[in-house]
Amino acid sequence: MAPSFFKEKLDDLAQKGLYRTLRTTTSDQDATLTVNGRELINFSSNNYLGIANHPALKEASIKAIGRYGAGSGASRLITGSMTLHDELESAIATFKGTEAALVFNSGYLANTGVISCLVGEGDFIFSDELNHASIIDGCRLNKAKVMVYRHNDLSHLEELLKNHSRSTIHHPRFLIATDTVFSMDGDLCPLPDIMKLAEKYDALVYVDEAHGTGVFGKNGRGVVEHYGISSAHPLLIQMGTLGKALGSFGAYVCGSRDLINYLINKARTFIFSTSLPPSVLAASQAAINLLQSDASMTQKLWENVRYFKKEAVSPIIPVLVGDAQKTMELSQKLFEKGIWAQGIRPPTVAEGSSRIRFTVMATHTKEQLDLCLKALKDLGL
Q1: Over the chain, what HEC string results?
Q2: Residue 211 annotated among the catalytic residues of the structure
Q3: Which of 7, 75, 230, 282 is deepest in the core (most CB within 10 A)?
Q4: Which of 54, 211, 226, 364 is catalytic?
Q5: pLDDT tens readout for residues 10-60
Q6: Is 27 a catalytic residue?
Q7: Which listed residue (132, 244, 284, 364) is catalytic?
């Protein structure tokens, strides 16, 4: 392959307005960021509760390093399964109301590792068309047939389920996979109705609570709790992340003890990854403890969300632009006005649906929200 291949591809991306660069921040992750020596109001973070730099998480992380060191040394099945892993998984299971939980190194690794081994050849996966890339890739790694249903279209989902029902000689297993909060649109999946279809067609339901954990539900347990669905439902498998509202890093999958034991034996992204380090595990557990003891953070988040946009259903508020190049130009204009709001372009979203994605945090002040709203008005957005 000629070295010019890379330059040609990069030039093509730039011409289409799809070229990406890294912009380094020099501050902690809070409602403001420092970039190139300039302080900007941060409207692009998934740190919804603003606890990534909370004293409780810092203290727990430092204490864990002092006791256990910096690294875990190996994968969980070798020597890398530590007391802190057990304690965190027990805390997650209690928090989510399930028999057991298993920690993964990231949401991406959880989705690709778990979905790829839940069903197999001859089976079917039914995946929402706007699912996160990690769900899509987990489906691709599976030998099951993947059926994509129109976004939140229950009629289309049932049509697909019905067309591939178990009336054949071979009785395939069904898996419905969906985000609970869609990361680029901010809307919720109709989970109660999906569960009804799952019961009707005997399908497992795999939900990604990455943007629901810590944000939705009376106790911050996610969209499953928000809808009043039992976490102990035998057809339900929940995944969530520890690096968004919980301010740490990593991910979890929770459900029955048999499910977790199965994943320990079959999920390749778990089996073949060096385990999360002590500092991260301790910070994650501190975040769960903090969430359970202080409901004011979630309340403040929703106050800010409703102030920013009254009819918003989540802290994710997209402003659709369409053209990728124009989207990035608007993002730069917001930057110049002191607002950090990143443009989202293909392949993250479909062609022609580029957008500025705003995310609201509990630690935003009313003044910061007002400044952003004024900047949007000034730009005609």
Answers
A1: CCCHHHHHHHHHHHHCCCCCCCCCECCCCCCEEEECCEEEEECCCCCCCCCCCCHHHHHHHHHHHHHHCCCCCCECCCCCCCHHHHHHHHHHHHHHCCCEEEEECCHHHHHHHHHHHHCCCCCEEEEECCCCHHHHHHHHHCCCEEEEECCCCHHHHHHHHHHCCCCCCCCCCEEEEEECECCCCCCECCHHHHHHHHHHHCEEEEEECCCCCCCCCCCCCCHHHHCCCCCCCCCEEEEEECCCCCCCCCEEEEECHHHHHHHHHHCHHHHCCECCCHHHHHHHHHHHHHHHHCCHHHHHHHHHHHHHCCCCCCCEEEEEEECHHHHHHHHHHHHHCCEECCEECCCCCCCCCEEEEEECCCCCCHHHHHHHHHHHHHCCC
A2: yes
A3: 282
A4: 211
A5: 899 988 888 888 888 888 889 999 998 899 999 999 999 999 999 999 999
A6: no
A7: 244
